[in-house]
Amino acid sequence: MRRVIINLERAITTIMRFLGILLIFIAAAVCSSFLPIIKTAGLHTIVIDAGHGGHDPGCQYGGKKEKDITLAIALKLGKIIKENLTDVNVIYTRDDDRFVELWERAHTANKNNADFFISIHVNANGKQSANGTETYTMGLHKSEDNLEVAKRENSVVLMEDDYSKRYDGFDPKSPEANIIFSMYQNVHLDQSLRFASKVEKQFKNETKRLSLGVKQAGFLVLWKTTMPSVLIETGFLSNDSERKFLCSETGQNALAQGIFDALKEYKDEVHALKKR
């Protein structure tokens, strides 16, 4: 009898947790129906965010650090944009090796009225065979792998002061918190997804990388941006072959060029829509 009661209590607890998450999801969906209609704007200011930095190295394998690779690709991307799109203003969240809190990265984009926010990262996995690129937008985790990537990238807030207050009580160590947080939808989701698909197409067809596709997850760095935004995982530092590519001038230039080509295509589409 005691075993039946215990099992019943567990079942009730599981159901209550599910209902709680379901209610939050419904509330988020209802709120999204009141979001303003997006007007097609030009592409005048781009904020490029090199992930990690300073005392936050990001993932580390083979003596290489994520923070160094993301900065190199970010600076190369910015240089290509400045040379080829002279009407576009490029702003970096960091252009050297320093620590920038996640909220400040989004704030940089917002205060400069950016038209797009691009956050560059490098992936890692316990399985050294894991490889490929993937581009994320803010949204619901569709798999356990997406959740793990978001948890790893969000864990940097533990290095920030008063992170619980700053991020509305968010606990990066809690799987439930990460799942609930991922239900927040960016009003610019469609534009973000459109650009993300172009990035992955470039990586696959031109940069000749394995594309793991466009995905959604709850990333703190994308949460409070007020413009289309993506987080690009440029490859796995934990994979020996990809690590060599990511750390090479050739690899970094190719990745930066791929992102630029996607941005140019997206910009041309936005311009065409404005003329209609």
How do you describe this structure in short?
With 276 residues, the protein is of the alpha/beta class. The protein has helices at residues 2-32, 66-84, 102-111, 144-154, 163-166, 175-181, 189-205, 220-223, 240-247, 249-275; strands spanning 45-50, 60-61, 64-65, 89-92, 116-123, 133-138, 211-217, 229-236.
Keywords:
single chain; 276 residues; Aminopeptidase; 6-stranded mixed beta sheet; two-stranded antiparallel ribbon; 10 helices; 50% helix
Profile the largest sheet.
6 strands, mixed
Which structural category fits the helices and strands?
Answer: alpha/beta
**What's the total helix number?**
10
- CATH architecture term of the largest domain: 3-Layer(aba) Sandwich
Spans of 5+ residues with little confidence (pLDDT < 50)? 21-40
Strand order of the largest sheet: 4-1-5-8-6-7
Q: How would you name the CATH homologous superfamily of the largest domain?
A: Zn-dependent exopeptidases
Strand content: 15-25%
Give the distance, in angstroms, between the N- and C-terminal Cα atoms: 71 Å
Tell me the domain tally.
Answer: 2
Average of the residue pLDDT scores: 81
- Please report the total strand number as a whole number: 8
Shape, per Cα inertia axes: globular
Give the class-level CATH name of the largest domain. Alpha Beta
| Pattern of helices and strands | HEEEHEHEEHHHHEHEHH
Protein topology:
Layout: H1 2-32, E1 45-50, E2 60-61, E3 64-65, H2 66-84, E4 89-92, H3 102-111, E5 116-123, E6 133-138, H4 144-154, H5 163-166, H6 175-181, H7 189-205, E7 211-217, H8 220-223, E8 229-236, H9 240-247, H10 249-275
Parallel strand pairs: 1-4, 1-5, 5-8, 6-7
Antiparallel strand pairs: 2-3, 6-8
Helix pairs in contact: 2-10, 7-10, 9-10
